[in-house]
Structures are given as structure tokens and as C-alpha cells.
Amino acid sequence: MTRTTRVALIGLLLLLALPGCQFVRLKLGIGYDVDIAAPGTPERVIQEALKASLEPDAEKGWGEFLNLLHTEQRDKGSLESWKGLKFREMRKKATNYVTNVATTGFTVKRIREEDDGNVSYFLYSPKTDMPTPCTVKPDPEQSNAWRITRCSL
User: Fold this and answer.
1) Is 118 inside a domain boundary?
2) Residue 16 lies in a domain
3) What CATH number is associated with residue 126?
4) Of 39, 32, 38, which Cα lies nearest the Cα of 99?
5) 13 occurs within a structural domain
6) How far is CA 33 from CA 19, 97, 131, 134, in A?
7) How confident is the prediction for the chain on average, in pLDDT?
8) Helices (H) and strands (E) in the chain, counts
9) Do 30 and 15 meet the contact criterion of CB atoms below 8 Å apart?
10) 71-95 pLDDT tens trace
11) By CB count within 10 A, which of 14, 38, 62, 67 is most buried?
């Protein structure tokens, strides 16, 4: 290995080790870990959703999760689907995505921004080859706070 190659490789490794290099890590398909997401970020909403799904009391967990849903997901039919199917499945599978139980940490493998304002975060699980999406979008009826519109965890 030439000196130039070694220097470039060391530089790349140092760059990837920095916590602020999410863009580079995502482009390389490495992803990044979220241990304590900053308030007001999409990652924080996903972290809170995982935390709600891990709540031992299902009704309490549902109440916490309900606060994270986007307004467009709050009509009667959608809420029945979320509570009766999607949230129930999420409760079964959440531990597959949590990398740090103490902080409800997780790993983001990729992010996809959509034309309608939705942003999908694909979470890594060692139990599947395909990262699983959780989609969030700013909710104008909740001060443009990020809220969940879809989640397949």
C-alpha cells in the first residue's frame, strides 16, 4: 500500500469516526447510530415511538404513541388501524431495532426525502436484510413539529 493510499484511508476512517459525518456514512451505506436524539428532530420522534412501543403497559404506550402521530393520521379509521394493527405489531418487533435499551437507541441505515414533505428513516435490524422505514413529516397543526405518518417497524 502506498503512502498516499494509507493517508487517504486514515483520513476516511477519521472522517467516518466523527459523529457529524452522517451524510458520508449514509452515502457509504454504513448508517449512523442515534443514542440520544435532540429534541425537535425526526430522530427524537422515532426514538419516542420506540420507547412507547416498549412500554410494558400497552394502553399507556398507546397513549404516548398517539401523541406522536401526524394530524392526518388521526381520523377514526386510521386510529383504529394504528392501535389495532400497526402499533400492536410495532410492540412485538421494537426490540429488533433498539441498539441501546437504556436510551432506546437505534441505527439509521438511510434516509429518503419525498416530494410531499415526508421523510423516511430506514432503521437497521440484525434480524432482517432490509432496513425498515418509519416516516415523519412536519405537522402544521402541531407547530410544524415532526410527527409520524407511516411506520413499518
Assistant:
1) yes
2) no
3) 3.10.450
4) 32
5) no
6) 9, 11, 14, 15
7) 88
8) 6, 5
9) no
10) 999 999 999 999 999 999 999 999 9
11) 62
